[in-house]
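Sat 14:20. Reprocessing the chain from the morning session after the first attempt stalled halfway. Input below, unchanged.
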Amino acid sequence: MSSPNLEIFLTPKDIAELIGMTVQGVHKLLKEHGIESRNQGSRQHRIYPTSFKELLQIKRFPIPKEVIVAHLVKGGVGKTTVVHALAARASAFGLRTLMVDLDQQANLSSSFGVHSRPKVDLTMLEVYLNHEKGIKTKINEAIIKLTDFLHIIPANLSLANLDLALIQATENLERLFMEMFSPISEDYDVIFIDCPPALSRVTSAAHCFATKILMPVNMDKFSLDGLDLTIDHHKLLSRKFKVNAKIHVIINKFDARQKLGFEVINQLSTEYQQSLCETYISVSKQIDNSIASNECIWNNSLGKNVALEDFNNLLIEILGLSSWKNRRQIDQQGVVKSPQRKEIVANA
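Finished this time. Tokens:
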């Protein structure tokens, strides 16, 4: 198995927008508390997760505790890219983040350069089989450390056997993942789970474990059909088990040049108003190419990218991190107005 050396960080501008300060105010704050930042070239300062975590602790900002599952029956909607983007960004925010790849295609794992081998490397299949035998510490051995703040339990083709193993067993799906993850649950602030595009015992167990469920949709009718099926499945689980996860419907790969996109948005706004995220993700060939090349999308090669800004805003929305602005205890001279969210104007 291989895993890359990732460099994930924030700039003073990122922090300024996140906590509601000027860039000058951020530099002053870091200097006052002796928080380390590193120069890259002549202009860019980099603040790594360990340093930003210090700032969170000093300012006593609330730290989220979430299990976030990405699932939609329809494939190809970009849920793996959403998990990749949000998890890596969460780690940059100083949040201890774990990704769990439950899809046997292992696209999330490979997007970070992790290539797991069947019958050699551990996945959630081995974690479950050991759980069934009463071995509760095996999950630690399945975790790969990408950075100090970003870890992953990878996938490979052997995961195709996980659902079969669950069908043959008499496991309580409602508590299965809670029990399997119990040895490490306190080690992480946020756990992201990338599910395969199927309705199965595996995805049902993930729904039961989740606090939030992300359902990305593209601007096509097939995505809407997949969304309806997934939400109906979630409602069924809610009636059968104690499932209280909040659903977040995400408009993904939005292209303002396509008239159909506005029709889909209007339909989603009507049918799923309470679940539809305010932030939507713009289409980006650069991000698609970066994922295909097994590169973290937050590296410097993408430069300024609208979709990256969208993912940043989406993470803030889903985790409720706007509270970091509201609860700051800083010199009011450093405060600036937060940027307005872009709005979709459906004038097709």
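DSSP finds 15 helices and nine strands in the chain.
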